[in-house]
TrEMBL record, chain A:
It comes from the Bacteria. Pfam families: Ald_Xan_dh_C (PF01315), MoCoBD_1 (PF02738), MoCoBD_2 (PF20256). It comes from Thermomonospora echinospora. GO terms for molecular function: iron ion binding; oxidoreductase activity. SMART domains: Ald_Xan_dh_C (SM01008). Coiled coil: none annotated. The keyword Oxidoreductase applies. Residues 24-131 form the Aldehyde oxidase/xanthine dehydrogenase a/b hammerhead domain. This is Xanthine dehydrogenase YagR molybdenum-binding subunit. The lineage of its organism: Bacteria, Bacillati, Actinomycetota, Actinomycetes, Streptosporangiales.
TrEMBL record, chain B:
It comes from the Bacteria. It holds the Pfam family Fer2_2. The keyword Ion transport does not apply. Residues 1-78 form the 2Fe-2S ferredoxin-type domain. SUPFAM superfamilies: 2Fe-2S ferredoxin-like, CO dehydrogenase ISP C-domain like. Signal peptide: none annotated. This is Carbon-monoxide dehydrogenase small subunit. InterPro entries: 2Fe-2S-bd, 2Fe-2S-bd_dom_sf, 2Fe-2S_ferredoxin-like_sf, 2Fe-2S_ferredoxin-type, 2Fe2S_fd_BS, Beta-grasp_dom_sf, Diverse_Oxidoreductases. Keywords: 2Fe-2S, Iron, Iron-sulfur, Metal-binding, Oxidoreductase. GO terms for molecular function: 2 iron, 2 sulfur cluster binding; metal ion binding; oxidoreductase activity. It comes from Thermomonospora echinospora. The keyword Metal-binding applies. Gene3D superfamilies: 3.10.20.30, [2Fe-2S]-binding domain.
TrEMBL record, chain C:
Transmembrane segments: none annotated. InterPro entries: CO_DH_flav_C, CO_DH_flav_C_dom_sf, Diverse_Substr_Oxidored, FAD-bd_PCMH, FAD-bd_PCMH-like_sf, FAD-bd_PCMH_sub1, FAD-bd_PCMH_sub2, Mopterin_DH_FAD-bd. Gene3D superfamilies: 3.30.465.10, CO dehydrogenase flavoprotein, C-terminal domain, Uridine Diphospho-n-acetylenolpyruvylglucosamine Reductase, domain 2. Residues 1-222 form the FAD-binding PCMH-type domain. Pfam families: CO_deh_flav_C, FAD_binding_5. It comes from Thermomonospora echinospora. It comes from the Bacteria. GO terms for molecular function: FAD binding; oxidoreductase activity. Keywords: Oxidoreductase. This is Xanthine dehydrogenase YagS FAD-binding subunit.
Length: 697, 157, 365
């Protein structure tokens, strides 16, 4: 248990401190940073999925007025290192090999972005084409088990005797579920402005973590980290895709070396984002549930097949949700990968939990139907007393309360479980429920300083970023409470590697890590200078892991409810209502938090009904690589999405009592919609997205 | 070529414009007006919404030459000096802003909606804003902001 | 920057001459499709002749009934026009179902008619496409073709025409007024669009340099009972999977005239002549409020549920006749690997739209 700070500002719905700049169009994003006399970049992309560049002719491009140079593997500055491991994604313009379609194989440097775009079109490339393979299937003979899966989880787990338990179970549900390749698609495409001068490299970047960009890029460019500065005051969303630098950052860093100190600007286009900034792997998941007739689970199998790129291994931790969610005494989880000639997959909001909970929570709904049990009751019956995986008690697991409170507010008690029994005005109506979970993650290596300014305000500095989550505001609230002063007396500085080291805004753990460091700094400051400091007084603090982390299992939980209408003639699916009830520790700012929950649930709605990147096996590219064809939910698709949370704090987690909120809203949302579609129509769709065609017999 | 048009009330000329350039590019790269955002470049997200002769349009799909002699108003031109427009105020107050990248386009589109229809129904709001994609908020707080701005605007009249 | 000349047309004839005389020239309307294509490299003109300022921005009643819609009239203005809303609801509904408000504020009548397919392979210059580059092959035929044609396609192209407005104009028997090098002429909209055959690069019968100046709507009393239904995955802002435009006339308890067109099924708006023929004479057996109004159409998507039993039990012969009419039209439909669903979806939507119109017709009698 850590000593918590007293909540004065925390818990208040403070208006977003960056709101005004954003509504007048003056908040500077990466590409809008003022630099002097910039040049513009446009990448050249490979149009084969695997092979070698035999020849690359840049003469026409270079002869275009306004073109400064064209960099390719033949003339680009060399990177430092061996280009192994995760660096293979960043090993840009260093060899003639093509590993996936859309890979950057050159970059035009020009006086305007339109000239650069035109010149990129004039680069002629001759390839030696090698056979490629981008097709994921569960019966491939080259599937392999990675050493670990994302976030350091074990690849496989076995508890008890699953085979025997399944064989003996009076009720068995055993099906295959699929989720497609998905794209984060933050509204701000990735962008970077790079300046390479005597002082080193400065990068204004659209990133979820300035320090991670520096940490990854400095060695590649052979620079001391102290000579790399990364700045990101405002970031237009990320959802994981900006959690690490990608190839475009390297491309800009290479180009900036050949311009004699002139800045270079690179805005990744929406179409290019489908090749170079990560995606969620498609998954094929077998869920096998064995249960007693009263619904109590005896066996749980979760076996996952997913893809990774051939050059960098990224193994989504899809089955981990099944290790701790329910009290099944016999459990087996597996992750198997196919290494394909696809772009490098990466984090997308709730990696692992989001696709994994879709499969598990639809399967639980199928089990409820098979047992003739209410799906809320089924979940409550299978609530574990302790974490089934670690055996440790939960720091807080009010799952049943979330389910009951949600059921009460949603009007669940009057629900007739019969599928396809409600036809109103041509629409079939149904409701569904699913559980949500997301781990409390504490990232290490965070520091912050507190300075007392001559104006009587406390300046608080940490290299955190605000990707839209509300860091500017919520971290100011935490700092105010840590210093025991009003928020008006705090001036926060974030988004710059000149500030103390901070973890990436990811894993729903940004505020936990940064807030802990700010609290540490505030406590150190007060200890040193007391309540009446002098101008210039400064103290630094760090963010130690909570001692309780060794003894407790820490997760956030939730229950999601959805009401859907399916047109009986056309199969169109609309969602008149979604409700999420969450238990997440303390909520620092209800105004920003509610919007994050609702936004994540809406992303789950979008995942349920719309999102699917289609890979063409012949070309190896995503066919629907723009927002016209990769659909995300529009305003008209949302009718009533609401989120509430249980009032609580989790003192075991950190001094703020928070567990993190950014991702849990998407977990289970798609399952709730899918379960409601089944209730409405009687059709069980086990592969996302649920589109009208899948409802036609 | 040279293009001359009125931006936020002031008549401006820009030179050396490429004929295939978009109004969005001219605003952002040549006139220092970064409010309208470039998020898809093909009219599929609404982040670049600006007024053109009084009607909100996607600036990314307007060829620069077509703006000659016309009137453009961007998000930068909505506040009255230091005083925010009620739509801008409402977006801040309701928490309708998260990452903020879709925000300028939404504010212009909302401003236009309320000018045409001061008291829109929820369904009208959702349809009128369907061309403005947002990935963060789930749209609910945006709806609240539009309602609040509508009530303030009608109340003020 | 590709070398590109821009001219603002001040005079229609000179605009036609300018484009007709230069293979690389194109008319520029609002640009909602063309400006995108410039960036994507799908269109590579060397001259843009901007015709959006020509005096074709009026909507005028025609002597003897009907409307003349100028080529430069904005989609939003057309949809909001009182005469359109009153006499041609199918057109207003189709317009409002298309794109987004911002795009409708830009898009013109002629530009909407001449927009190109949204086939993703057509829009991606790195993949083969016979429509974009004749002779390179059709990537969709064996590729991702969920949104592609089931009627009238060829081995060279399976793209669909994306316009909603054109589907409505097709049931209205609109005529397209064209100014070409040889002077003015009129083309029925049902003859404007081509099927792909072996020349999918040509969407229409227009010649290079032909300028659409207006669309004429005939006076058509039955069009006051018309409707447009667009089926799409998102609730807004998506192209049609299937759409149906229809107008119907009932006398003495039977359908005396019907006009129906499908969108999303073919390389052109698909006028359903066979279905229309089958609809004529169909008895409208139900009075307002009786089983016709209650019955669910055709095949409900979820077999076995209430939709096919319960509330749906009172299926009437009228609904069966409607279904038969749709089936007559769709008998030649040939699905591709991913779009077989379009056939039942089109049939169901057809029945739903006709049933709705008949119900409305019954209510007004």
């Amino acid at each position: 248990m850590t000593e918590t700070i007293r909540a004065r500002a925390m818990g208040r719905p403070l208006e977003r401190l960056d709101g005004r700049d954003k509504v007048v169009g003056q908040a500077p994003y990466a590409y809008e940073q003022q630099v002097t006399d910039p040049l513009y970049l446009h990448p050249v992309q490979a149009v084969i999925a695997r092979g070698r560049i035999n020849a690359i002719d840049t003469a026409d491009a270079e002869s275009l007025p306004g073109v400064v140079t064209v960099l390719t593997h033949l003339n680009a500055p060399r990177l430092t290192g061996d280009g192994d491991g995760d660096d293979r994604e960043l090993w840009v313009l260093q060899s003639d090999e093509v590993h996936f379609r859309g890979q950057f194989i050159g970059v035009v440097v020009a006086e305007t972005s339109e000239i650069a775009r035109h010149a990129a079109d004039l680069v002629r490339v001759e390839y030696e084409r090698w056979p490629h393979d981008v097709e994921l299937s569960a019966d491939r003979d080259d599937l392999y088990a990675p050493d670990k899966v994302n976030a350091g989880h074990d690849t496989d787990t076995d508890v008890g005797d699953v085979a025997a338990a399944l064989a003996d179970a009076p009720v068995v549900v055993d099906h295959t579920y699929r989720t497609p390749m998905e794209y984060n698609n933050p509204m701000e495409p990735h962008a970077t402005v790079a300046v390479w001068d005597a002082g080193g490299l400065t990068m204004y970047d659209s990133t979820q973590g300035v320090h991670v960009v520096r940490q990854r890029l400095a060695p590649l460019f052979g620079l001391d980290p102290g000579h790399v500065r990364v700045v990101a005051p405002h970031v237009g969303g990320g959802f994981g895709s900006k959690g690490a630098p990608h190839a475009h950052n390297v491309l800009a860093g290479l180009a900036a070396q050949v311009t004699g100190g002139r800045p270079v600007k690179l805005a990744v286009t929406r179409q290019q984002m489908f090749s170079v900034v990560g995606h969620r792997t498609p998954t094929i998941q077998r869920i096998g549930l064995g249960a007693e007739t009263d619904g109590r689970l005896t066996a749980l199998v979760h076996e996952v097949v997913e893809h990774t790129s051939r050059i960098v291994e990224y193994a989504e931790q899809t089955a981990v949700v099944s290790r701790m969610m329910y009290a099944a005494p016999n459990r087996r989880t597996r992750h198997r990968l196919a290494a394909l000639d696809v772009p490098v997959p990466f984090w997308m909001r709730a990696p692992g939990e989001a696709p994994g909970a879709f499969a598990l929570e639809v399967a639980m709904d199928e089990l409820a139907v098979a047992c003739g049990l209410d799906p809320v009751e089924l979940r409550i019956r299978n609530e574990p007393d302790v974490d089934p995986e670690s055996g440790r008690p939960f720091s807080g697991r009010r799952m049943s309360e979330c389910l009951r409170e949600g059921a009460r507010r949603f009007g669940w008690e009057s629900r007739d479980p019969t599928p396809a029994a409600r036809l109103r005005d041509g629409w079939l109506e149904g409701t569904g429920v699913a559980a949500s979970v997301y781990p409390r993650i504490m990232q290490t290596g965070n520091r912050a300083w507190v300075r007392y300014g001559p104006d009587g305000r406390y300046e608080v500095g940490i290299g955190a970023v605000d990707i839209g989550t509300g860091t500017w505001t919520a971290l100011t609230q935490i700092a105010a409470d840590a210093l025991e002063v009003p928020v008006e007396e705090v001036r926060l500085r974030i988004g710059d590697t000149d500030l103390p080291e901070a973890a990436v805004a990811g894993g729903s753990g940004g505020l936990s890590a940064w807030g802990s460091a700010v609290v540490g700094a505030a406590r150190a400051f007060r200890e040193k200078f007391g309540r009446h400091p002098s101008a210039g007084d400064e103290a630094t603090g760090t963010a130690p892991e909570s001692p309780a982390a060794e003894d407790f299992s820490m997760y956030s939980f939730g229950a999601q409810f959805a009401h859907v209408r399916v047109h009986a003639d056309t199969g169109e699916i609309r969602v008149p209502r979604m409700l999420g009830v969450f238990t997440v520790g303390r909520v620092v700012n209800p105004r920003t938090a509610r919007s994050q929950f609702v936004g994540a649930m809406t992303m789950g709605l979008s995942m349920a009904l719309h999102e699917e990147a289609v890979l063409d096996p012949r070309f190896g590219h995503v066919v629907n690589h723009d927002l016209a064809t990769y659909h995300i939910a529009t305003h008209a698709d949302v009718q009533d999405v609401d989120a509430i949370w249980l009032d609580e704090e989790d003192p075991r987690s950190n001094p703020m009592g928070i567990r993190g909120i950014g991702e849990i809203g998407i977990v289970g949302a798609a399952a709730a919609v899918a379960n409601a579609v089944h209730h409405a129509t009687g059709v069980r769709v086990r592969d996302l997205p649920i589109t009208p065609d899948k409802l036609f017999h | 070529m040279r293009v001359t048009f009125t931006v936020n009330g002031s008549r401006e000329s820009v030179d050396d414009v490429w004929e295939g350039e978009s109004l969005l590019y001219v605003l952002r790269e040549r006139m220092g007006l970064p409010g309208a955002k470039n998020a898809c470049e093909q009219g599929e997200c609404g982040s670049c919404t600006v007024y053109l002769d009084g009607a909100p349009v996607c600036a990314c799909l307007v060829a620069a030459g077509q703006v000659e002699g016309r009137e453009v108003r961007t998000v930068e031109g909505l506040a009255d000096g230091g005083r925010l427009d009620p739509v801008q105020e409402a977006f801040v107050e309701c928490g309708a802003v998260q990452c903020g990248f879709c925000t300028p386009g939404l504010i212009v589109q909302t401003h236009a909606l309320l000018a045409r229809r001061p008291d829109p129904s929820d369904a009208e709001i959702r349809e009128a804003l369907a061309g403005n994609l947002c990935r963060c908020t789930g749209y609910e707080k945006i709806l609240d902001a539009v309602r609040l701005a509508a009530s303030r605007k009608t109340g003020a009249e | 920057m590709r070398p590109l000349e821009y001219r603002r047309a001040e005079d229609p004839r000179r605009a036609v001459t300018a484009v007709a005389g230069r293979p690389g020239a194109m008319f520029l309307g609002a640009g909602t499709n063309l400006v995108d294509h410039l960036k994507l490299g799908v269109a590579r003109p060397d001259l843009l002749v901007d015709v959006s300022h020509l005096p074709y921005d009026k909507i005028e009643p025609r002597p003897g009934g009907g409307l003349r819609i100028g080529a430069a009239v904005r989609n939003s203005d057309l949809a909001a026009h009182p005469l359109v809303r009153q006499h041609y609801p199918v057109l207003a509904q189709a317009l409002l179902s298309g794109a987004s408000p911002q795009l409708r504020n830009l898009a013109t009548t002629a530009g909407n008619l001449l927009q190109r397919t949204r086939c993703p392979y057509f829009q991606d210059v790195t993949t083969p496409c016979n429509k974009r580059e004749p002779g390179t092959g059709c990537s969709a035929l064996e590729g991702y073709n969920r949104e592609h044609a089931v009627l009238g396609a060829s081995e060279h192209c399976v793209a669909v025409h994306p316009s909603d407005m054109a589907v409505a104009l097709t049931v209205l028997d609109a005529e397209v007024r064209v100014l070409g090098s040889g002077g003015e002429r009129t083309i029925p909209i049902t003859e404007l669009y081509r099927l792909p055959g072996d020349r999918p690069d040509r969407d229409t019968v227009l010649k290079h340099g032909d300028l659409i100046t207006a669309v004429d709507l005939p006076g058509l009393p039955m069009a006051a009972h018309s409707a447009y239904r667009k089926v799409r995955e998102r609730a807004s802002y998506a192209f049609a999977l299937v759409s149906v435009a229809a107008a119907v006339q009932v006398r003495d308890g039977a359908i005396t005239d019907a006009r129906v067109a499908f969108g999303g099924l073919a390389h052109k708006p698909w006028r359903a002549y066979r279905a229309e023929e089958a609809l004529r004479g169909v008895r409208v057996s139900a009075a307002p409020g009786d089983t016709l109004a209650e019955a669910t159409t055709a095949a409900p998507i979820a077999a076995g549920g209430a939709a096919s039993t319960g509330e749906n039990a009172g299926g009437t012969s009228t609904v069966e006749d409607l279904r038969a009419a749709a089936d007559a039209e769709l008998a030649d439909a040939r699905p591709l690997a991913h779009n077989a669903f379009k056939i039942p979806m089109a049939r169901n939507t057809f029945v739903a739209v006709l049933r709705g119109l008949l119900r409305e017709e019954g209510a007004t009698r």
